[in-house]
C-alpha cells in the first residue's frame, strides 16, 4: 500500500514539475483537454492527412484573400447561405411549441415563395415576349416574301414601248416603267385623287374616275364591272360606329339588295333591247314605245312556237304569265300591272296581291296577304304546268325561296335576281318556315356552291359579279386579286370601297389577305387592304417609286401591328428598297435648306416621316445612310452621335483613297464645316466627342505619314494622355469621363504615342551630336529650349514611363498584346 502511495506521489510530483516548467512567463495558450477530446482531435488529424493538397490550397486561398482583407471562413459561410437562398425552397418546419420561431419561419417561407413566383413569372413573361417578337418579325418576312412572289409574273416583262409616265419623269435603272398602260391610267387617277384630298374640299368620286379609265379600254367586261361597282356604292350611309355594324344592319342589307336588283334589271333591259333591235323582222316591234311592247317583241323571238296549253289565257297570242315575268325582270312593275288589269278576271286574287306588292316601298306584301298567297301557292300554283306562273307567284309572295326555277332562270344573272327578290329581312318572317336571308344566301353561294360551281377561273368576271351583288365585297376582291390579268382592277375596286368605308378590315395588319375573326357573323370575311396594296405595288415600286408612294398615301389612316403609322412604315421600306433618298425625301442644299421631295406633296409631317425612315435605316445597320437622313431631318445631335460611332471604328486606320475611313472623314469634315457656318450643334457631350475624334484622325494621319513631330504636338494639345509622371493620377481620374468612342480607340492611341516617343528616342540617339544636320535635327521642346541631348532623352523616357503607368492604372481592359508592346518599347528606351 505504501509503495502504491509513493508511486502516485511521484507521479504527482512529476506532474507539478511539468506544470512549473510550462509556466515560464511566456504567453502561451493553456491546453486543457480530456482523453475523449484528445481522441477526437487525433481522429480529425488522421482523417485530414490525405487532404494535404486541398489543405495547401485552402491555405494559399486564405493568404491571398487575407491580403485583400477578406476572411475566407466568413466568406464561405455567406456563400453557403446565398447558395441555400437561391433555391428558394421552403425552410424546414420547427417545433410547434416555438411560436416565435414558427412565425419567423412562416414569414421567411412566404417571402421565399413570393420571390420564387416572381422569378417564375418573369421568366415566363420574358419567354412569351421573345416568341411574340420573333413571330412578329417572321410574319413581316413572310409578308415580304409572299408579296414579292405575287408581285412577280409574266406581266413584269411586258414593258410597253408607247406608254409614258403620266405622273412624273421617274428615273429608274432600266429607263422604263414596270407598269403597263392600264396600271398607269389607274395610277394617274390615284394621283389626281390624292392631290384633291390634300388640297381639301369635297373628295372626287373614285368610281367616276376609274370608270373613265375603263371607258378607254374598249373592254365591255371591265366597263360593266365598274357599272356594277357604281350601283353597289350608291347606297345611303348609315351612321354606325363601324363598317361591321353597317354591314349587318337591316337597312344596309336592304339597300345593297335593292341596288343589286336594279343593276340586274337594267342590265337585262339592255339585253332585251339589244335582242329586239338586232332581230327587228322577227321581233315585229311596233306600237307605243315602252317596256310592254319591248317585252312582247322579245317574246316573239324567244318563244316562236306558242305553248300548246296556256293557263289563264293570253295577250295578243302570248302567254300572260310570261309577259308579266319579263316585265318584272326588266324592272317595270307598271307594265306588268297593265297586263294584269287587261285580264284581271282570269287571275283571281292575284291582281290584289300584285297591287299591294307594287305599291309597297320595299316590294313586300303585308303579313296577311303574304300568308294567303303562300297558301294559294302550295295548294294549286306549285303544281301548275306554267313555269312563269310559278315564278311570278314566288316573286310576289316570296314562296319557295330555295327553288331554282331552272326552266325560267337558266342563267346565273336570272338566278341571282330571283333569289335577291325573295330575300327576307323583317322579324315577322320568323313565322314562316320557308325563308331565305341574305347571310344564308351568301353562305350558299360562297361555301355550298363555291368557285368550282361557277367555273370561276375561266369566268372571273361572272364569279366576281356573283359575290359583289350579294354584298360579299371582300371575297370578291380577294378572288380577283389572285388572277394576274385582272388584279389591277381588283385593287382599284378595293380602293373605292375602302375610301367609302365599306370594307371590313382585320385588326392585325399581318393577317391573311382574306380572314375571319371569331366575333364576326357568318359568312362575313375581312380583307387585308394594306397587304393587297403592298402586293400590288411590289411589282413596280423599284422602277416607279413615286407611283407606289401615291398608293401608300391611301394607307395613312391604318396602323401596323406595333401601332406605327402604316403610310410612314411603307415609305420607310420603299426608301430603303429603292434608295431614292433625294427623289422621295428631298435633299439638302449647300446653304443647309432642304429641297422638297415627293412626300412633301402630301402636306403631312415630313419631318416625322424622314426621322422614321432614318430610325429604320439605323435599325438595319445602314449608319451612313441614317446619317444622311438624320441630317435631312435636322436632327443634328443624332447625326453627330452616329458619326462618332463610325469614326471611332476607323480613326486609327491609315488613310487610303476611296477607303471607308477616307469617305467618312470627308463626310465628317463637310458636316463640321456646314454646322459651323449654320451655328448648328448637337448636345455638348456629342459635339465635343465629334471634334475630339476629328482631331484624333488628324493625329493618326500625321502618325501614319511619318510626321512624328506634328503627331506628337497634336496628341499633347489634346491632353488625353499624361506626359509626366506627376500628371498620371489626374489623367486616371479624368479617364472615367472620356466618351466610349475615345475609350475604344485608347489602345491604338497609346501604341501610336509610345511609338512616336520611341522613334524620337532612336532619332536622338542616332544623331550623335547636337550639331548634326538633318535628318538628325529635331525640334522637341527640351532639345530646342535646353539644348541638352541627354535632357531631351530623359524627357522622352519620362513621358514613356508616364504612359506605362497610366496604361496600368486606368480601369479599362485593353487587348493582351497592347501592354506587352508598350512595355517592350519603353524598355528599349532605357
UniProtKB/TrEMBL annotation:
Keywords: Membrane, mRNA transport, Nuclear pore complex, Nucleus, Protein transport, Translocation, Transport. GO terms for cellular component: nuclear pore. GO terms for molecular function: structural constituent of nuclear pore. The keyword Ligase does not apply. GO terms for biological process: poly(A)+ mRNA export from nucleus; protein import into nucleus. It is found in: Nucleus, Nuclear pore complex. Pfam families: Nic96 (PF04097). This is Nuclear pore protein. InterPro entries: Nucleoporin_int_Nup93/Nic96 (IPR007231). Transmembrane segments: none annotated. Belongs to the nucleoporin interacting component (NIC) family. It comes from the Eukaryota. It comes from Ridgeia piscesae (Tubeworm).
Amino acid at each position: 500500500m505504501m509503495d502504491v502511495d509513493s508511486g502516485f506521489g511521484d507521479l504527482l510530483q512529476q506532474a507539478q514539475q511539468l506544470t512549473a516548467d510550462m509556466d515560464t512567463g511566456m504567453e502561451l495558450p493553456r491546453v486543457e483537454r480530456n482523453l475523449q477530446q484528445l481522441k477526437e482531435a487525433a481522429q480529425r488529424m488522421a482523417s485530414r492527412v490525405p487532404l494535404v493538397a486541398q489543405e495547401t490550397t485552402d491555405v494559399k486561398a486564405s493568404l491571398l484573400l487575407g491580403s485583400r482583407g477578406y476572411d475566407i471562413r466568413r466568406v464561405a459561410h455567406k456563400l453557403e447561405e446565398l447558395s441555400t437562398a437561391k433555391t428558394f425552397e421552403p425552410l424546414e418546419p420547427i417545433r410547434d411549441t416555438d411560436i416565435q420561431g414558427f412565425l419567423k419561419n412562416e414569414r421567411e417561407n412566404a417571402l421565399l415563395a413570393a420571390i420564387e413566383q416572381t422569378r417564375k413569372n418573369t421568366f415566363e413573361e420574358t419567354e412569351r415576349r421573345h416568341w411574340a417578337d420573333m413571330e412578329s418579325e417572321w410574319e413581316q418576312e413572310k409578308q415580304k416574301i409572299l408579296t414579292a412572289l405575287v408581285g412577280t409574273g409574266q406581266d413584269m416583262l411586258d414593258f410597253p414601248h408607247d406608254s409614258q409616265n403620266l405622273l412624273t419623269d421617274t428615273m429608274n435603272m432600266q429607263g422604263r416603267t414596270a407598269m403597263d398602260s392600264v396600271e398607269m391610267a389607274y395610277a394617274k387617277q390615284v394621283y389626281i385623287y390624292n392631290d384633291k384630298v390634300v388640297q381639301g374640299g369635297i373628295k372626287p368620286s373614285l368610281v367616276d374616275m376609274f370608270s373613265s379609265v375603263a371607258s378607254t379600254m374598249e373592254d365591255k367586261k371591265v366597263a360593266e364591272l365598274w357599272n356594277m361597282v357604281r350601283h353597289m356604292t350608291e347606297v345611303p350611309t348609315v351612321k354606325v360606329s363601324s363598317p361591321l355594324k353597317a354591314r349587318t344592319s337591316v337597312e344596309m342589307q336592304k339597300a345593297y339588295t335593292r341596288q343589286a336588283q336594279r343593276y340586274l334589271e337594267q342590265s337585262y333591259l339592255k339585253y332585251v333591247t339589244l335582242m329586239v333591235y338586232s332581230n327587228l323582222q322577227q321581233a315585229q316591234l311596233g306600237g307605243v314605245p315602252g317596256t310592254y311592247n319591248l317585252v312582247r317583241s322579245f317574246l316573239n323571238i324567244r318563244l316562236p312556237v306558242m305553248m300548246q296549253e296556256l293557263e289563264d289565257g293570253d295577250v295578243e297570242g302570248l302567254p300572260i304569265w310570261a309577259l308579266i315575268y319579263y316585265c318584272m325582270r326588266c324592272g317595270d312593275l307598271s307594265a306588268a300591272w297593265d297586263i294584269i288589269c287587261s285580264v284581271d278576271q282570269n287571275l283571281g286574287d292575284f291582281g290584289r296581291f300584285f297591287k299591294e306588292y307594287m305599291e309597297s316601298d320595299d316590294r313586300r306584301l303585308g303579313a296577311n296577304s303574304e300568308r294567303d298567297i303562300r297558301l294559294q301557292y302550295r295548294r294549286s300554283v306549285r303544281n301548275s304546268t306554267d313555269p312563269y306562273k310559278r315564278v311570278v307567284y314566288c316573286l310576289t309572295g316570296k314562296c319557295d325561296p330555295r327553288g331554282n326555277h331552272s326552266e325560267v332562270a337558266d342563267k346565273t344573272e336570272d338566278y341571282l335576281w330571283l333569289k335577291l327578290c325573295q330575300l327576307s329581312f323583317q322579324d315577322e318572317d320568323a313565322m314562316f318556315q320557308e325563308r331565305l336571308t341574305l347571310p344564308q344566301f351568301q353562305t350558299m353561294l360562297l361555301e355550298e356552291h363555291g368557285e368550282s360551281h361557277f367555273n370561276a377561273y375561266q369566268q372571273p368576271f361572272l364569279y366576281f359579279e356573283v359575290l359583289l351583288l350579294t354584298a360579299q365585297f371582300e371575297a370578291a376582291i380577294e378572288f380577283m386579286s389572285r388572277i394576274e390579268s385582272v388584279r389591277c382592277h381588283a385593287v382599284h375596286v378595293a380602293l373605292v370601297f375602302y375610301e367609302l368605308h365599306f370594307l371590313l378590315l382585320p385588326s392585325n395588319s399581318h393577317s391573311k389577305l382574306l380572314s375571319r375573326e371569331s366575333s364576326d357573323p357568318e359568312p362575313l370575311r375581312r380583307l387585308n387592304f394594306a397587304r393587297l396594296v403592298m402586293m400590288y405595288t411590289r411589282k413596280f415600286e423599284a422602277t416607279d417609286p413615286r407611283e407606289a408612294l401615291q398608293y401608300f398615301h391611301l394607307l395613312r389612316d391604318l396602323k401596323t401591328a406595333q401601332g406605327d403609322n402604316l403610310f410612314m412604315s411603307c415609305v420607310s421600306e420603299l426608301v430603303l428598297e429603292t434608295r431614292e433618298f433625294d427623289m422621295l425625301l428631298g435633299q439638302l442644299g449647300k446653304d443647309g435648306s432642304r429641297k422638297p421631295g415627293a412626300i412633301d406633296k402630301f402636306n403631312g409631317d415630313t419631318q416625322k416621316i424622314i426621322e422614321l425612315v432614318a430610325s429604320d435605316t439605323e435599325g438595319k445597320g445602314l449608319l451612313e445612310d441614317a446619317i444622311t437622313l438624320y441630317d435631312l431631318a435636322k436632327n443634328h445631335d443624332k447625326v453627330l452621335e452616329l458619326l462618332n460611332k463610325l469614326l471611332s471604328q476607323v480613326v486609327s486606320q491609315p488613310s487610303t483613297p476611296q477607303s471607308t475611313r477616307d469617305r467618312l472623314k470627308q463626310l465628317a469634315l463637310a458636316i463640321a464645316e456646314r454646322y459651323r457656318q449654320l451655328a448648328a450643334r448637337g448636345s455638348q457631350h456629342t459635339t465635343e466627342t465629334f471634334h475630339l475624334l476629328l482631331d484624333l484622325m488628324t493625329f493618326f494621319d500625321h502618325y501614319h505619314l511619318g510626321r512624328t513631330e506634328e503627331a506628337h504636338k497634336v496628341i499633347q494639345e489634346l491632353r488625353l494622355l499624361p506626359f509626366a509622371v506627376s500628371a498620371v493620377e489626374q489623367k486616371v481620374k479624368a479617364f472615367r469621363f472620356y466618351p466610349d468612342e475615345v475609350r475604344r480607340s485608347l489602345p491604338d492611341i497609346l501604341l501610336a504615342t509610345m511609338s512616336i516617343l520611341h522613334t524620337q528616342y532612336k532619332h536622338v540617339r542616332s544623331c550623335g551630336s547636337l550639331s548634326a544636320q538633318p535628318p538628325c535635327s529635331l525640334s522637341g521642346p527640351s532639345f530646342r529650349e535646353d539644348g541638352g541631348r541627354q535632357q531631351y532623352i530623359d524627357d522622352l523616357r519620362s513621358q514613356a514611363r508616364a504612359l506605362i503607368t497610366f496604361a496600368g492604372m486606368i480601369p479599362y481592359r485593353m487587348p493582351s498584346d497592347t501592354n506587352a508592346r508598350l512595355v517592350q518599347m519603353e524598355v528599349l528606351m532605357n
